[in-house]
Amino acid sequence: MPLRRAIHKMLYFVTGSRDKFAEAKAILPDIEQFEADLPEIQSIDAEEIARAKLEEAAKGREGAFFVEDTSLYLEALGGLPGPLIKWFMKTIGNEGLVTIAAAFDNTKATAKTIIGYRGEDGDVRFYEGSLEGSIVSPRGEHGFGWDAIFMPHGIAMTFAEMSNENKNENSMRQIALKKLKAALI
Amino acid sequence: MPLRRAIHKMLYFVTGSRDKFAEAKAILPDIEQFEADLPEIQSIDAEEIARAKLEEAAKGREGAFFVEDTSLYLEALGGLPGPLIKWFMKTIGNEGLVTIAAAFDNTKATAKTIIGYRGEDGDVRFYEGSLEGSIVSPRGEHGFGWDAIFMPHGIAMTFAEMSNENKNENSMRQIALKKLKAALI
């Protein structure tokens, strides 16, 4: 069911990242950036985190809002790091994640983007994009974060070995953004 | 420096746990429970989490407040799980933590309680209790959470092998509570 949105009311992408905003704007030209680094609640449920963030963003403000969260899930860790990936990156980093995957003898991983959309009426919907892949020893110079250790299935390159263009073409974030776009028509 | 607190104003312990409240009340008989499970922000800095929680608790309410957070830090993980321990318990549990400690060939761990206190004037102070120890294979039937895999230095028993009384006698929580009590006099 398409989302109804009052004409002339704005759709804001709540993000502190210019790069993420530019990527989304290429798909959704009418959006505006709501440049805020809102605190995130502790949870391993990306939808719960997105919902709380949307409520915070919408407080006392008009318009529709969306947020995005991109997470890495290691099958061996049953839900971790998930949305808590940034704390793993800040502490043990890529090498630590590789050590953990090896310890559990399971390198299966999923890269997942969740987009949470909150309409003017307060209704919240989610759009997901995900890619299955493997954790490998760090390879490649592009990208950031865990790009160097995630290799999507069917591609013999890590995200960090792909050009940005190449990576974005079929990324989990693009899949989620395109689902949001389709719902907004 | 002792904390000045207006007479007749209440000191609230913000916690959803009856057990934790009872333990604190035995040391600080005048406190009241503010029974709330306030959402916690994502961070690996226990003081930052406590500060945000205290601000939330104090919104539109009179009195002084304190919160406590007990975390487990694995030296190998450089700050993790820390305040994120509950998500590790919900996913990989004790066995997973033991596997990780073994993979990094480092079983050193610290159990730490942080108490955050917010006075009527909005001033926030912290009181810490910590115990050094090791991660061991699960042993013992008492306690909860990670009690079965944490063995404090100098004691040949995990927390789960001690009676509650025995465990509480010199726990990191008791150390922190006693520091708060000393500051309140």
Structure description:
- Two copies of one chain form a homodimer.
- Helix content of chain A is 32%, strand content 25%.
- With 185 residues, chain A is an alpha/beta fold.
- Chain A has helices at residues 18-27, 46-58, 85-91, 93-103, 164-169, 172-184, and strands spanning 11-14, 32-34, 64-74, 81-82, 108-118, 124-135, 150-152.
- In chain A, helix 3 (85-91) packs across helix 4.
- The mean pLDDT of chain A is 93.
- In chain A, strand 1 (11-14), helix 1 and strand 2 (32-34) form a beta-alpha-beta unit.
- The first copy, chain A, has one domain (11-184): Alpha-Beta Complex (Maf protein).
- The A-B interface holds A 39-44, 49, 52, 76-80, 83-84, 86-88, 90-92, 96, 99-100, 102-104 and B 39-44, 49, 52, 77-80, 83-84, 86-88, 90-92, 96, 99-100, 102-104.
Please write out the topology.
Two copies of one chain form a homodimer.
Chain A: E1 11-14, H1 18-27, E2 32-34, H2 46-58, E3 64-74, E4 81-82, H3 85-91, H4 93-103, E5 108-118, E6 124-135, E7 150-152, H5 164-169, H6 172-184
Parallel strand pairs in A: 1-2, 1-3
Antiparallel strand pairs in A: 3-4, 3-5, 5-6, 6-7
Helix pairs in contact in A: 3-4
Based on the model shown, name its key terms.
Maf protein, 185 residues, 6 helices
What's the short version?
2 copies of one chain form a homodimer. By secondary structure, chain A is α/β, with parallel strands linked by helices.
